[in-house]
Design a protein that fits this description.
- A hairpin with a 5-residue loop joins strand 1 and strand 2.
- This protein is of the alpha+beta class and about 350 residues long.
- It contains nine helices and 16 strands.
- The longest helix has 15 residues.
- It has three domains: about 130 residues, Roll (Pnp Oxidase, Chain A), CATH 2.30.110; about 45 residues; about 140 residues, Aminopeptidase (3-Layer(aba) Sandwich), CATH 3.40.630.30.
- Helix 4 runs antiparallel to helix 5 and helix 6 packs across helix 7.
- Strands 10-11-12-13-14-16-15 form a seven-stranded mixed beta sheet. Strands 2-1-5-6-9 form a five-stranded antiparallel beta sheet.
Length: about 350
């Protein structure tokens, strides 16, 4: 992976593993809470601990993300050999240093606090504040400057395109947590992968089984003038999409979000929300494909009760088995699909 992508994996890691040696050559391997501070990893520890004996020694910090396990039978009905794990990993090499300057210590510990407690609600760590002066002097703060960054991304890049297509279809069918995100990871890493049937869309757009976090900012301009959001707080739009059980969409050739739909599901009951297509893309079948993709999503596919509300799209949803829920208390413009 490129350095920036590898460091992004490191930044997402809740903990890392530190590997180093003591001066007499004994190996040391420790799991650590850590934070990034510029081009370094920082963490703290006791002055009498084993890590303190490793100051000045070469060290490696590693982190990994499992993307998905690939069973062998997706690619071969007999042989076990194709079984594999898709993952991302990063190792950063450097020399373990002690941070002695109080201002640098405070900055490193603030980085840790921002990671642990992003809502803050604590007194900022300031070396001139008597609240922290004693603690800053007593605590041992470590820094590992990044002298070398090695990142690896194993996402079926070495597989034939036909195998990658089989992986996408297998992940969609299986639908375990993380599988739809794995579909998007493979497509990003291997852009020549054929488009599976479940992601086929109208010309000029690419359908996505899971949208990335950076697409959240594009949902507000798409939705804020809709009748269902007009009198609500638009700052909630990113929040509800971030918490969605399923969130699908489509992007145009420039990478701009042009359609989106989300759902919340507990496996028994689901609600569909915020089905939207950009005005310039309406009338070409994109809305139909987005609804089909969402209903086929693993979070909704077998759900017995699926609800939604609409003022003007009853005909669209009727195609997929939705009927009016009139007469039910406090429901209003609702439709429901019931499966036995």
């Amino acid at each position: 992976m490129p350095r920036e992508a590898a460091l992004a994996v490191l930044a997402r890691a809740p903990t890392v593993h530190l590997a180093t040696t003591t001066p007499d050559g004994r190996p040391v391997l420790r799991a650590l809470d850590f934070a990034l501070d510029g081009d370094s990893a920082v963490f703290h520890g006791a002055r009498a601990g084993e890590k303190a004996a490793c100051l000045g020694r070469p060290a490696v910090i590693s982190a990994e993300e499992r993307v998905a396990f690939v069973p062998s039978h997706w690619l071969d009905p007999v042989r076990a050999c194709p079984a594999s794990t898709l993952y991302r990993s990063v190792q950063v090499h450097g020399t373990l240093q002690e941070v002695t300057d109080l201002a640098e210590k405070a900055r490193a510990l603030e980085a840790l606090m921002r990671k642990w407690q992003p809502e803050k609600k604590y007194r900022p760590i300031d070396p001139s504040d008597p609240t922290y002066t004693g603690e800053l002097k007593g605590v041992l703060v470590f820094r590992l400057p990044f002298e070398q960054v090695d990142g690896k991304e194993k996402l079926a890049q070495n597989r034939p395109a036909t195998d990658r297509l089989a992986l996408l279809e297998g992940l969609w069918r299986r639908g375990e947590p993380g599988d739809v995100e794995a579909i998007e990871a493979i497509r990003t890493a291997c852009p020549d992968t054929p488009v599976p049937a479940f992601l086929a869309g109208p010309p000029g757009v690419t359908l996505h089984a899971a949208l990335p976090a950076e697409a959240i900012a594009e949902t507000t301009p798409l939705l804020q003038d809709t009748y269902w959001w007009k009198d609500r707080r638009s700052e909630l739009i990113p929040i509800v999409h971030r918490r969605a059980t399923a969130w699908v969409g489509a992007k145009d050739e420039a990478g701009r979000l042009v359609a989106s739909a989300r759902a919340m599901s507990d496996g028994w009951t689901a609600w569909i929300y915020d089905v939207i297509v950009a005005p310039e893309r309406r009338g070409g079948g994109l809305g139909k494909r987005i609804v089909e993709l969402l209903l086929d999503h693993p979070a909704l596919r077998e759900t017995p009760l699926v609800w939604l509300k609409t003022r003007d799209a009853q005909g669209l949803y009727a195609r997929y088995g939705f009927v009016s829920a009139e007469g039910r208390p406090n429901i209003g413009e609702a439709m429901v699909r019931v499966r036995g």
